[in-house]
Amino acid sequence: MKKNTIQEIAVNNNTPFYLYDIGLLRETIETAISEAQKYGYELHYALKANFSEQILKIISSYGMGADCVSGNEIDWAVRTGFKPEKIVFAGVGKTDDEINLALNHNIFCLNCESLQEISVINQLAGLKNQKADIALRINPDIDAQTHRFITTGLNENKFGINCSDLDKVLNEISGFKNIRLKGLHFHIGSQILNLKPFKELCLKINQILNLAGELEFVNVGGGLGIDYLEPEQNRIPDFKNYFKVFNDNLQLNSGQKVHFELGRSIVGQCGSLISRVLYVKPGNCRNYLILDAGMTHLIRPALYQAHHKIENLSSGLAEGNKYDIVGPICESSDVFAQELSFPKTERGDIIQIKSAGAYGEVMSSQYNMKTLFPAVFVNQSVFAENKADI
Ligand code: LLP
Questions:
Q1: pLDDT tier, 340 (very low <50, low <70, confident <90, very high otherwise)
Q2: pLDDT at residue 309 above 90?
Q3: Bridge-partner residues for 343, per DSSP?
Q4: Is 265 in the pocket of ligand 1 (CB under 6 A)?
């Protein structure tokens, strides 16, 4: 392609909008599945990362299962092609309606986070003369070494049942007639690039499995990170070594299956937020590039101080200036990057904020009533070619 493809797409569309590279999405799914198949691992896609209809239909067409955290996600997963018998349902606060919906759909399993919740599920399943398949979500007290807002497996977090309460819970639920305990569930956090915490998780699971007796499966959650710093060099996450850690370290009983719930690693790199520069504003101490996209379209930098690589697709490589790249929202935290060295930039230039396929569009909000235009989907792998063509 002679000209920068993304820039061409942007010129023909109102900004800001999310752009999804379906070629890259397919490559990522195919890699994840082929690496997981080496060990017979079951994959569920975590809808919370991105629930766009087009994306879900593609993911479900590969036969992956779904990981849902609300009744609406369960409904949507079924409507976009996921098989109910491959749906898991997690969350610390499932409502009665959501539990009933999960039971009506006969999903694979409810991942339960407290004794009280299990007792409610037991009652509701009893009213339907059903047995609910459940897994116990265990809090393994492992530091995932990620941002504190997205670490979930520490004792201080609200998630899961503490290891020290496991005996008591197992004891109590053995008396529940409408519950079938099928497995254990874990999830230590998100955006984890160092594989050591996953190894630690496996060792913890080995200890706990011995206590829990015969179970059909272990669900180890999600959490594999993506490269936000150099997305072009690492477009597909390191699924190979990730799955290998589990194969090398988990000691399973024969026939016991391992399930994963991957979100970010599947969709993170296939999405970008495309924006235009509205104003180039010199300040007293900083220079600002004011974009038409802000924290209402991509909240990760404001919420987690997350880094997303940003490029000016219109400008050449000529040395420009250092800029703070900010949005139009009436909040000082509406900042995508600070003092970023950037090529010379003008009003109207097209800006690509990369690695925004996961927890981007789904976390956008109505605040300030700023418009987010409909997403654009392209079939060929545009993100790979983009840089070379500038
Ligand atoms: N399973 C459970 C139980 C989870 O809570 C999560 C994510 C996943 C699976 C998928 O994790 P992943 O593979 O995507 O790391 N909004 C934050 C991330 C929140 C993650 C919430 N739980 C962000 O933008 O970084």
A1: very high
A2: yes
A3: 319
A4: yes
Integer CA distances (angstroms), 226 to 77, 93, 106, 265, in order: 24, 28, 33, 6
Boundaries of domain holding 204: 22-268
Q: Which of 218, 236, 268 is the last residue of a domain?
A: 268
Number of H helices, E strands in the chain: 12, 17
pLDDT value of position 2 = 31
CATH number of the domain encompassing residue 46: 3.20.20.10
Residue 225 beta carbon below 6 angstroms from any ligand 1 atom:
no
Of the chain, the percentage scoring pLDDT greater than 70 comes to: 94
Residue located nearest, by CA, to atom 9 of ligand 1: 222
* Residue 215 and residue 345 share a domain: no
Q: Whose CA is nearest to atom 7 of ligand 1?
A: 190
- Domain boundary among the residues 235, 268, 301 is at 268
Q: How confident is the model at residue 319 (pLDDT cuts 50, 70, 90)?
A: confident
Same domain, 193 and 113: yes
